[in-house]
Amino acid sequence: MARSAREASGETQTRPARKTISQPGPDTRGWFRRIVIGVPFFWLFALFLVPFLIVFKISLSEVVTAMPPYQPTFGSIAGWWSALKEFSFDNYRWIAGDPLYFNSYVLSLGIAAASTVLTLLLAYPLAYGISKASPAWRTSLVMLVILPFWTSFLIRVYAWIAILKPEGLLNQLLLWLRVIDQPLVILNTPTAIFIGIVYSYLPFMILPIYASLERMDQSLIEAAADLGATPFKTFWTVTFPLSLPGVIAGCFLVFIPATGEFVIPDLLGGSRTLMIGKTVWLEFFTNRDWPVASAVTVVLVIILVLPIVLFQRVQARAQ
Amino acid sequence: MKSLGSIRNDFAPWREPQAQPFIRFEAITKRFGQFNAVDDLSLSIFKGEFFALLGASGCGKSTLLRMLAGFETPTSGRVILDGDDLAGIPPYRRPVNMMFQSYALFPHMSVAKNIAFGLKREGMPKGEIAARVEQVLKLVKLQDYARRRPDQLSGGQRQRVALARSLAKRPKVLLLDEPLGALDKKLREETQFELTDLQYELGTTFIMVTHDQEEAMTMADRIAVMDKGRIVQVATPAEIYEAPKSRFVADFVGDVNLFDGTVQAVDRGRITLQTSAGSPFTVTSDVAVSNGQAVTFVLRPEKLRIAAEPLSGANVLEGEVWDIAYVGPVTSFHIRLANGAVVKVAMINATRESPLQLTWHDRAWLQFDEDAGLVLTA
């Protein structure tokens, strides 16, 4: 008893000294945590929110032949107030008035929606197949899905030109197989855009669906079978509903970038398909109308962000 | 047959020679690669039985259950249910339902929808489904939880929903895979009796897989003890405990003292055994043995008396108190004999104040009756 008491008192004497040497105090740890969390937020703030606010500010400006090609500009602190008074929503009114922009938005959303559905139809069976493969195979198959990322996106889209053009690989193959006797015109049509988008965004759809399928409890499938559900019924009543979070995540990951896609429609879709990305490009570089281009961009962001926010609200309430 | 244990068994179709088995496993083998999960196993289960497959993990008990459910196909042999060979019948067409160890409740459906799932697949009319759902929910006392989702239920409630769901289709056989494995001790004990009562009420044949011998003994009419893909003994809980067929069963079910001995003399059902534990034991046994034969003597801890003073008479062991555990209903002693062997003794605490006062390293004397133990040749 006496000995243990002595040991205990010895312990309390040595403990504070040890603590300050080897362990960071709660203060430093708090700071560390704040920095770790703060860095990505700063990144988003500096490289997304600030540029977006600049774009928004330009969208309220007026086009002029100058450098930069809009006014007002914030020359000095004193000029701020007068500059603010010059802001107007004229560019938004302009966009609303010209059916070119409206059509361009509708076309972009339509192409994005259709190619999201196509991607989903292709990606779901693939993800399902991978999740059903043996564990040894699964890793390799997932590797294969992300393998295309090792090559530049631009090069892969250029490669599709070589495949799809009238004298390209696809037509040569089909002619050789005597499936067709005239080369198909695919390049510079919406079909080529669909092919390009589905190809490019397929991994973004496969991976989240695979993740949700892979972590699904296999005994649920067995339970469904045990209760009399055929494999087909089991899929639609259990497997698919439970993979919905993955499906939704994949659809967002495809739909959002596909809506603003510029490279694929520009290289594969030809000049007749005017998607919103191309419209912004034309306003910026051909018309040099930065304010209208900015307004088109801001409207696009609103179109995309609002439904996502609403959807997440609904999701959060459902849980 | 002499009665073992203290329960009279009125329901015992396995003792009636003309009774037809409801489920028959005929020479079943299931091979996974080089490993025989189930090895040339035959077993008959009767209608209305609560049957338990008991064994350590990897003994093949779950595989056997899954072959009945249709999730595994036997490598060879036949599974026959109510006269029908189940070969080639997929799980969704078998008249059996399973309660899964993980419960496998559909997380995206309410309790009522979970239970209705199987009924809908049958094409039952909506009104009937609602009535049936209500009926089984009542059976498991969860009427007020129909609209909850599985993640809003406690472990015990989830277990009941799983049970209700597997009973809703009124299967010919209910399969239970470690039904109480995920419950805490108190709840498990309550549920054991509820399950037994429910089975009695419904008259459905229940087949349970468990590694918990207490669970098997509490609930089952008969137990099949399994080891390495084979059945080592099929018998009632009392027979398994009081008359194990082999050393393995004796050791697996309950606490036991095993003495290796040689037969010194046999005299009209009384055997004198020489063991290294001390003076020879005199025990009654109807096992046919001959002089000099090596046998195992099985003695359950509660069948020994313990005293702090030397005891007279036959079958006395002397040793030192090595360990004591006061468990409440019993006090468990570990007595170390002169030969180094440790004998387990369980003393029933029949009175609040114990007449026996022993502590660590005291001398203690043990005694057992001639018919307290069992002579095994296997």
From TrEMBL, chain A:
<keyword id="KW-0813">Transport</keyword>
<feature type="region of interest" description="Disordered">
    <location>
        <begin position="1"/>
        <end position="25"/>
    </location>
</feature>
<keyword id="KW-1003">Cell membrane</keyword>
<feature type="transmembrane region" description="Helical">
    <location>
        <begin position="234"/>
        <end position="258"/>
    </location>
</feature>
<comment type="similarity">
    <text>Belongs to the binding-protein-dependent transport system permease family. CysTW subfamily.</text>
</comment>
<feature type="transmembrane region" description="Helical">
    <location>
        <begin position="105"/>
        <end position="129"/>
    </location>
</feature>
<keyword id="KW-0812">Transmembrane</keyword>
<dbReference type="GO" id="GO:0005886">
    <property type="term" value="C:plasma membrane"/>
</dbReference>
<feature type="compositionally biased region" description="Polar residues">
    <location>
        <begin position="10"/>
        <end position="25"/>
    </location>
</feature>
<protein>
    <submittedName>
        <fullName>ABC transporter permease subunit</fullName>
    </submittedName>
</protein>
<dbReference type="Pfam" id="PF00528">
    <property type="entry name" value="BPD_transp_1"/>
</dbReference>
<feature type="domain" description="ABC transmembrane type-1">
    <location>
        <begin position="105"/>
        <end position="311"/>
    </location>
</feature>
<dbReference type="InterPro" id="IPR035906">
    <property type="entry name" value="MetI-like_sf"/>
</dbReference>
<feature type="transmembrane region" description="Helical">
    <location>
        <begin position="35"/>
        <end position="60"/>
    </location>
</feature>
<keyword id="KW-1133">Transmembrane helix</keyword>
<feature type="transmembrane region" description="Helical">
    <location>
        <begin position="141"/>
        <end position="164"/>
    </location>
</feature>
<feature type="transmembrane region" description="Helical">
    <location>
        <begin position="184"/>
        <end position="213"/>
    </location>
</feature>
<keyword id="KW-0472">Membrane</keyword>
<feature type="transmembrane region" description="Helical">
    <location>
        <begin position="290"/>
        <end position="311"/>
    </location>
</feature>
<dbReference type="InterPro" id="IPR000515">
    <property type="entry name" value="MetI-like"/>
</dbReference>
<dbReference type="GO" id="GO:0055085">
    <property type="term" value="P:transmembrane transport"/>
</dbReference>
From TrEMBL, chain B:
<feature type="domain" description="ABC transporter">
    <location>
        <begin position="23"/>
        <end position="253"/>
    </location>
</feature>
<keyword id="KW-0813">Transport</keyword>
<dbReference type="InterPro" id="IPR013611">
    <property type="entry name" value="Transp-assoc_OB_typ2"/>
</dbReference>
<comment type="subunit">
    <text>The complex is composed of two ATP-binding proteins (PotA), two transmembrane proteins (PotB and PotC) and a solute-binding protein (PotD).</text>
</comment>
<dbReference type="InterPro" id="IPR003439">
    <property type="entry name" value="ABC_transporter-like_ATP-bd"/>
</dbReference>
<dbReference type="InterPro" id="IPR050093">
    <property type="entry name" value="ABC_SmlMolc_Importer"/>
</dbReference>
<comment type="function">
    <text>Part of the ABC transporter complex PotABCD involved in spermidine/putrescine import. Responsible for energy coupling to the transport system.</text>
</comment>
<dbReference type="InterPro" id="IPR027417">
    <property type="entry name" value="P-loop_NTPase"/>
</dbReference>
<dbReference type="GO" id="GO:0016887">
    <property type="term" value="F:ATP hydrolysis activity"/>
</dbReference>
<keyword id="KW-0472">Membrane</keyword>
<protein>
    <recommendedName>
        <fullName>Spermidine/putrescine import ATP-binding protein PotA</fullName>
        <ecNumber>7.6.2.11</ecNumber>
    </recommendedName>
</protein>
<dbReference type="Pfam" id="PF00005">
    <property type="entry name" value="ABC_tran"/>
</dbReference>
<dbReference type="GO" id="GO:0005524">
    <property type="term" value="F:ATP binding"/>
</dbReference>
<keyword id="KW-0067">ATP-binding</keyword>
<dbReference type="InterPro" id="IPR017871">
    <property type="entry name" value="ABC_transporter-like_CS"/>
</dbReference>
<keyword id="KW-0997">Cell inner membrane</keyword>
<keyword id="KW-1278">Translocase</keyword>
<keyword id="KW-0547">Nucleotide-binding</keyword>
<dbReference type="GO" id="GO:0015594">
    <property type="term" value="F:ABC-type putrescine transporter activity"/>
</dbReference>
<dbReference type="Pfam" id="PF08402">
    <property type="entry name" value="TOBE_2"/>
</dbReference>
<dbReference type="InterPro" id="IPR003593">
    <property type="entry name" value="AAA+_ATPase"/>
</dbReference>
<dbReference type="GO" id="GO:0043190">
    <property type="term" value="C:ATP-binding cassette (ABC) transporter complex"/>
</dbReference>
